[in-house]
Amino acid sequence: MNALKSKWKLVTLAALVVLAAASVLATTATARSSASTIKIAVLSDCQGAFGSFDNQDMAGVVTAMAQFAGAKAKNPNKPRDGWTGGSINGHPLKLVGVGCSNDRADTAIKETKRLMEQLGADILIGPLSGDESIAVANYAKQHPNKTFVDGSAGAQDTTLKVRAPNFFRFNGDGAMWNAGLGDLAHNKLGWKTAAVIADDYSFAWTSAAGFIAEFCAVGGNVTKRVFPPLNTTDYSSYAQQMPTNVDGTFVAVGGAGLIPFLKAYEQAHGPIDGKKFIGNLFWGTPGQFEQLSTRVAGAYVGGAGTAGDLATKAAKAYNAQVGKVFKTIPPYGAAAPQAASTFTYGFYVNTWGLLAGLKANGGNIAGGQKSLQAAIKKVRLATPYGPLYLDKNNQAVINVFYQQLYEKGGKLAVKTVGEIPGVTQTFGGTFSSSTPAPGRTNPKCVKRSLPWIGKTIHPPVTG
Amino acid sequence: MTRITPDRVVGIGALVLAVIAPFIVSSYWVGALLTQMLFLGIVAASLIFLSAYGGMISLAQVAVYGIAGFVVGNATTNGNTKGLNLGWNPWWGVIAGIAIAVGVGLLFGALASRSVGIYFLMITLTYSVIANLTFGQVTDVSGFGGISGIPAPGAIGRVEAHQNRLYYVALVAAFLVYLLLRYVARTPFGLTLQGVRDDPIRMASLGYNVNLHRTIAFGFASFVASIGGVLFVWWNGHIDPASIDLGATIDVLVIAVIGGLYRLEGAWVGALFFVIVNNYSQQISFIGPRFHTLIGAIFLLIVLVSPGGLVGLWERALELASGTHKEPSDRTPIEVGPVESHV
Predict the structure, then answer these.
(1) Cis omega (within 30 of 0) for bond into A331
(2) Could you tell me which chain B residue has the CA closest to the CA of A199?
(3) pTM above 0.95, yes or no
(4) What ipTM score was computed for the predicted complex, to two decimals?
(5) Can you tell me the distance from the alpha carbon of A340 to that of B19, in angstroms, rounded to the nearest whole number?
(6) What are phi and psi of A403, to 5 degrees?
(7) What is the DSSP annotation of B214-250?
(8) Which candidate from A11, A109, A202 shows the least CB-CB separation from B238?
C-alpha cells in the first residue's frame, strides 16, 4: 500500500515539474519587446562550404548599421558579436539573433523559423548562398507581414522565379556578376571552345549560366559541362573529366572546394596556365584568392558587382568605412582589404537598402510592414560601385566588374580591368520568368545579341 | 475492468496536455516545437517498432520518410521550384507518397531480411546513403536545393496562418499510429514477429517464413515512417537531400535511444527532449552551433546511465518508489523485448 502511495507521489511530482517547465518555456517564448523597437535578425553561414565567410557577412551588416543608423560594433575584432545602439527615426534597431546555416536550404529554413518565429524578428537579413535564398524567399512568400532582404546569395530563381513581394535583393545574381566574361573570352582571348565546371547547385548553375549565355551569344561553343556536388572534398574524378582540347575553362567551383579542385586539376593535367582559365567570383574574393598562389596568375575573374581597387572617392570611402568599424575580420585578418568581398559587400548593400527604406518611411513597421516594403521597393542607392535600383521583381540592377589575377612581389594580386554598367537580371533578354532555370543543361548554347558586347569600360583603378 | 496504473495516468495526462497545448503555450511552441515533436516521434516510433518487436535496428527510416516527402513535393508543387511540379491535389500526393514509400520499404526489407545485427544496420545505413545521394544527384526530382513551396491540403490551409490545424492533424496521426503499433504487436503477426526476433531458427523450424515476416514488418514500419514524412513536408514546406542526410538519420536514432528503444512512448518522449534541447541550446552562446556535441554527450550519458532511455528512467523511478526494483536494469530490447503490460 505504501509502495502504491509512493508511486502516485512520483506521478504528481512529475506532473508538477512538466507543468512548471512548460509554463516557463512558454513564457520565454511569448516575451515581447516594446512596440517601437525594430527587431532584426541576420542569417549567415557559420558552417559548410562558406562557413569561413561568416564574419565577413556580419561585418557588412554592422558596417551599414554604423554608417546609416548610428550603431556601434560590439567588438571591432569580431563582427559576429553584432552591434549596439542604432536607430531609425527614434526606433531602436535591435539584433535579436544571428542564424548559423551551412549552405543547405533545409538548415536555412530551420534557422529562419527560429529567428522569425521564436525570437520574433520583424526583418531578416540573409542568407549567404543560392539554394538557401530560394528557400527563404519561398518562406517570405508565406509570411507577407515580415520583410526579408538578401545577404549575398546569387541564385537566379530567388527573384526571377519565386518573386516574393516582401523579399528584396540589392546584390546581383551569379549570372549578372559574370557579364562581360564571354565577350572577353571569345573576342579578346580568342577562345572558340570552352569547358565549364561548376558546383552542382543553384548559385553555381546561375554563375555558369552567365558565362555560357554570353560566350555562346558571341559565337563560342561550350563543349563540356561538369558539375561536382557542393562540399566535394576529392575532385580528382571531376578534374579527369575536364577536356584539354578546348581553348579555355570556366571554373565556378566555390568556397572550400576551389583550392582542392585546382590541386586535383594540376595532378590530372599538369601546371595551370592562368590565361586559359576564367574563374567566378571566388577567384577574387578577398581572404580567399591570396591562397590560390601565383600558379593562376593571368587568369580573369568574374566579380560580384565589386571592385576593391576602384579609384573613385565612393569606393575608397567604403573601404575606409569598413576599416573604421572593424580592425580585423576573422579568420582572414585586416578588415579594410576585405571590404570588397562578395560577402562583406553583399550584406552591407542589402542592409543599406533596408535602412534606406526604413528611413524613407520613418521606421514604420506597422500595418503588416506594407509601407516599409513599398518604401524599400523605391530605394535607389549611390553605392561605392555605381548606381543601383530595384526592378519589378525586387532584384537590383547594378554595374558589374571583372578582374585579372597577376603576380606582384611574388604574391598573387587582383586588379579590376572591365566594367559593364546597368546589368539587369534578364541578361540582355536572355532570361525571364518563363525561361528554364539555370541547371546542368541550361542555358543552351545559342548565338544572340547582347547590349554590352564590345562596350566594356576600363574603370580607373588604384595601384 | 481496466486497471489504473501510474503509466496510464501519465499517458492520459500527456494526451490531455497535448490536446490543450494550443491554449496554454505560445504559437511558436505549438507550430514549431510540438508539431515537430509529433512527426519526429512518428518516425522514431517506426524505428522502435522494428527494434523492439522485430529485433531490427533500422537506419533506413529517415530515407523512407524522405521518399514520401519528396514524392509529395514533386506531386503537389506547381511552378517555381525544382522537381517535377506535377501540381496534383495534395491528397493524391499523400496517397502516392505513402504508396511509393511503402513499396520501396518492402523492397528494402526484402533485401535486408536475411541479415541480422550489425549487417542489418549496415545495409539500412546504405539505404539511407543511397536515398540521400539519389535525391542530391537526380535534379529532375530534387537536386541539391530541393523542393520549396510544398502546400498542405486545403483543409489544413496555409500552415503559417493556421498552425493549430497542422498540430492537431499531427496529434491525431501520432495517436492513431501509437494505437496501431500497439494493436499490430498483439496480432498473430506481431506475436510471430516477436518469435522471429527471439529465435528465428526455431520459428523457421515451426514453419514460419522468417524473411517474409521481417519484410512485411519493414514495409509496415515504412508506412508509419512515411506518415511522418508527409507531415514533415507540410510543416516545413520544403525538403532537400540535407533533410535526409546522415545527420538526420542519426538524429532519429538518437531520439529513439534517448526516449527508450523498447517502449513506443519513448519515441515521443525522446522527440520532445531532442526538439527542446536543439531549439534552446542554440541560445546558449558557448553551445550555439555545437548542438550535436551536446546531444552526443547526452546520448552517451543516457546509454551509460539508463539503456532504457528516459522512459527507462521513469520505470526505474517507479520501481524504486514502490520497492519492486527488478534486475537486470540494463536489459536491451533485442534480448528482452517489450513486456506485455508496457505496450
Answers:
(1) yes
(2) B144
(3) no
(4) 0.81
(5) 54
(6) -125, 170
(7) HHHHHHHHHHHHHHHHHHHHHHHSEE-GGGGSHHHHH
(8) A109
